[in-house]
Amino acid sequence: MKQRVAECWVIGILSIGALFFIKQAQNVASTTLPGGIGPRTFPLITFWAVLILNACLLGSIIWEKVKTKKAAPTEDESQTKLIWRVIPYIPRQTLNIIIMCLLLVFLWRYLGFIVVAFLFVAGASLLLVPEEKRSLRRSLVLAGVYALVIYTLFVYVFKIPLA
Amino acid sequence: MEVASSFSMVMAVLTDPMAMLWTFVGTFMGLVFGSLPGLTATMGIALLVPITYSFPTIHALGMMLGVYVGGIAGGAVAAILLNIPGTPSAVATVLDGHPMAQQGRAAKALGWAATASFFGGFISWLILATLAPQVAKFALRFGPPEYAALALFGLMIIASVSGKSLIKGVISGLIGVWLSTFGVDPIIGDLRFTFGNINLMSGIAVMPALIGFYAIPQILRSLSEEQTMEMNTKTLNLSDFIPSLKEIWRSKFNIVRSSVIGTIIGIIPATGGNIAAFLAYDQAKRFSKSPEEYGKGCPDGVIAPEAANNGVTGGALVPLLTLGIPGDSVTAVLLGGLMIHGLQPGPQLFSKSPDIIMGIFTTLLIANIFMWVIQLVGIKFFVRILRVPTYFLAPMLVILAVVGSYALRNSLFDVWLTILLGLFGYLMLRGGFPMAPTVLGLVLGPMLESEIRRTLILSGGDWSVFFVRPISAVFIGVSLLIALTVAVKSFKKGKNADQVEASI
Amino acid sequence: MNKRLQKVLLLLVLCTVILSSTVVFAAWQPRREITIIIPWSPGGATDIMARKLQPIIRREFGINTVVVNKEGGNSAVGLTELITSRPDGYTVGLASSTILSLMAQNQISWKSDRFTNICLVSEDPMLLGVSKDAKWNDLHEFLADVKANPGTITIGTAGSRNVNHADAVLAAQSVGSTIRQVPFNGASRAIAGVLGRHIDAVVLKPSETISQIQSGELRALGIFRNERLESLPQVPTFEELGYDVFPYGPVDQISYLVAPAGLNKDVKDKLAEIFRGALQNEEFQNFAKESGFVCNPIYGDEFDEYIGNLSSALAEVAANIY
Asked: What is the arithmetic mean of pLDDT over B337-341?
């Protein structure tokens, strides 16, 4: 069922996005060139195609569901909490890392690359490692070395300034 | 040019230890740049332009060509081991390379990738060295209608890389096209969907999307309990990762066909390794006796894209050296590098400085050999990355992905964009939407749009040009045929729904 | 006695004031490296120009420079960053006609008063080129054909709504006619288009076409400039053949050195001195000649006036042509 939930989310986001962009396309110049294709035409074809295909996909999902329901009511569905049927079920670890990723980029400008990279790698590895293998020192050392190596490599070897 | 004098020029390069050394260094650097997502061969060469400024010309050229060759080949390493293509050219390599790694055949896949890359590079080198002036004329036959038809033909590949559900594949492809509509309109120069943000004016580049759609979802998935990177536990048989002569002979048609496709695509300006790799993959699957194995870890699915994307290297040098027209962004930078050494690529280069031409040919071949050797030796070390436990590997890859997306344009905006696309990509991955069509849409969508509109400006609004000109007519005809067969197939599939899973 | 002391003191004070002020005004000297923001991708024409300057500046003035590429938004991203950096002389950038063109079309939210103009770096006058097999032998024949067949001759340009586009249209307007402007994504596609006879002509920079012109694949019919080019002396100008392509004033493709607004006069002068010195260096001048651009680093009030004229010409062009 998890795949179904994610599917529906993708369909939902895309459909809302397509509608929004179809509206936005009105702000694009309406100049038409020879052959009748202007700057709006191609994006509009794309957005409408997304909408139509989304509808088809949704239709096939519902159709399949109706069919399987008739055949035999699935058991696992009733056991899953309602909430996980509506929002995509994201494992806690993954959710933590997503939040840490956002923090990482957000704090980059204020703390500098070495510090955020160190904190991220150290924090994330401590969070992810199974309890029996957890070692604070190992995580800290690894994070420190890694942050320094990446920094040196990019800034001094590749000459790419990491603000 | 006499054979004897050109032979002596070749020997002059071969016996120059510094030329060899710098070519080696360049190739190694290229492999590093290629395997790290976010760093590209273009950036590598641009970085070298000021460094090699004071070098003798041949040393500088050897180093830059090494980066080019290595940079294209290196993309396969991350693609196979981590499911994250290091360069856009390696997207098609993921399709079969990563399944091979998951089956514990990572070393074999890498061996094939290196070998196929070498053959691709070698065959395109052969064409460059023997036929350059003749085939250059072919590049000029490609006008806007031909480009448009090629883009359409390329988009048909979505059907063969969609996996289980064609409709999801097409939606994924449209997402790519959608992302390509941001920014300055390619024809009239008006702004589209920039929402007043200057960072969106030049549109969404392929690299942030690539990192967003491949790296981030892949890392996030590796964290969840049910989807640990199972290849960690698999033992790798290192003894037989170099393809035997027998195996190479068995795939000879695939190797040659893919290399030639790569070279031809390379010769056509403004195309590139990504398109070449997908075309070769698609053709390999079409010609294969067992197409159902593609996408499930078939070595031929690694050979085709890797031979093709390195085939592009020799091909792209054809218009550069004979006409002075750079075929892609890498050769554009290469052109700059040549100019800073006081060389003006073009037909005159052949007559004015044959020593430089011979130097380019020789170092290019040497770079291809180095690339092969370094990769084969390196496989033992590359696969060690699989032994790094996920709880360390995942945070490190996140940092690399973030830094890589920043490094493209030194911009935090791109980092946010990458993360945003990455989160959406995670949903797509969980929902079973394939990623390869998105990249195809992002690359080919804008090409299709701008070339159609350009053609119509040229023809004054007359659509018939597409069908009158032979090259475009053939491409469009074949595309329609493919579309028709795919439609018929999926219609049949819909009729007997029980067989849905069985037939691809 | 007291008065005398006062006088001496006054004199002393005056001396110190004068001395210290001269110290302040004349002696601004970069104490650390200067960052040059290049709003284009690494390896592009502008980037290579800056990287060519780096060793010359180090050698001649003992000053280190760092090139930072901030591409995006047709140079708007990098230059927006430049105008928000500190006007202390340690951050400069290479602006071009492109950004002036964006300002003229209001595609960006700020104007060129956010810049301190330091000096001109390069001038890339456009030229009109046709394939070697084309039926037109010179500019007169070409423009006569344009006049006789309005709206049918196709001219390729690199991009739209820029100097290329403007010059192509202005050439047709000089004989009271129109053309079909075909924008390509970059100069190399346009060159391939004209060599393959998919389009009739191109309007591109000499630096983009010099190798094809020298090899004879491409014939340059005319140049959009008031004087002939030193690197292509055989190519006539539109003006000398009697065509007025600049009714709104010269529309030049230039790149120039800028710093954020609010730069001190002495810092500005020093930067102009350093960069002009490097630009006028023989090595760079030879590079300019080989690559086909003009490097005549005017500066100061003369340059400000030049930019003013160019901006207003581009504004006219934006209103009348695009």
From this structure: 81
Closest in C54, C72, C184 to B199, CB measured? C72
Size of interface A-B (CB pairs under 8 A): 179
Residue B419 inside a domain? The answer is yes
Q: Domain ranges for chain A, please list them.
A: 2-86, 92-157
Alpha carbon distances (Å) from C321 to B34, B187, C97: 44, 15, 16
Q: Is B470 on the interface with A (CB under 8 A)?
A: no
B497 pLDDT higher than 50: no
Under 8 Å CB-to-CB from C45, ≥6 apart: which residues?
B336, C207, C208, C291
Put simply, the chain B residues between 388 and 447 with a CB less than 8 A from any chain A CB are 389-392, 394-396, 398-400, 402-403, 406-407, 410, 412, 415-416, 419, 423-424, 427-428, 430-433, 445
**Strand pairing category for C254-260 and C115-123:** antiparallel
Interface test with chain A among B224, B412, B493, by most A beta carbons within 10 Å: B224
> Is B500 among the domain residues?
no
- Taking a C-beta distance cutoff of 8 angstroms, is the pair C218, C129 a contact? yes
- Count of domains in chain B? 1
For B47, which residue in chain A has the nearest alpha carbon? Answer: A158
Cα pseudo-dihedral A146, A147, A152, A155, rounded to 10:
140
Neighbouring chains to B with at least 3 Cβ pairs closer than 8 Å: A, C
Contacts of A50 in chain B (CB under 8 A): 171, 174-175, 178
**């052959």: which residue's tokens?**
A35
The pLDDT-based confidence of B504 (bands split at 50, 70, 90) is very low
* C 49-78 near B (Cβ less than 8 A): 51-52, 54-55, 67-74, 76-77
Name which of B163, B165, B172 is nearest B96 in CA terms. Answer: B163
pLDDT digits (tens, 9 = 90+) for B377-399: 888 888 888 888 888 889 999 99
DSSP readout, B57-91? HHHHHHHHHHHHHHHHHHHHHHHHHHS--SSGGGH
Contact residues for B271 (Cβ-Cβ < 8 A; gap 6+): B150, B265, B327, B328
Nearest by Cα to C218 from C230, C233, C203: C203
A125 lies within 8 A of chain B by CB: yes
Would B504 be classed as within a structural domain? Answer: no
Show pLDDT as tens, one digit a residue, over chain C (322 residues). 466 666 666 665 555 555 554 444 456 888 889 999 999 887 778 888 898 899 899 999 999 998 888 888 889 999 999 999 999 999 999 999 999 999 998 888 899 999 999 999 999 999 999 999 999 999 999 999 999 999 999 999 998 889 999 999 999 999 999 999 999 988 889 999 999 999 999 999 998 898 889 888 999 999 999 889 988 999 999 999 999 999 998 888 999 999 999 999 999 999 999 999 999 999 999 989 888 899 999 999 999 999 999 999 999 998 988 8
- Domains of chain C as residue ranges with CATH: 34-123+252-320 (3.40.190.150), 127-223 (3.40.190.10)
CB-CB under 8 Å, B178 with A43: yes
Q: At what angle do helices B354-382 and B106-140 cross, to 10 degrees?
A: 160
How far is the C-alpha of B89 from the C-alpha of B70, rounded, in Å?
A: 12
CA dist B76 and B100 (Å) reads 13
For residue B250, being part of any structural domain is answered with yes
ipTM: 0.91
Question: Which residue in this structure is represented by tokens 């088809």?
Answer: A56
Kindly tell me the number of DSSP H helices and DSSP E strands found in chain A. 7, 0
Put simply, the answer to whether A10 touches B463 (Cβ < 8 Å) is no
- Measured CA to CA, the distance from residue B311 to residue B116 in angstroms comes to 10
Place of tokens 């928000």: C84
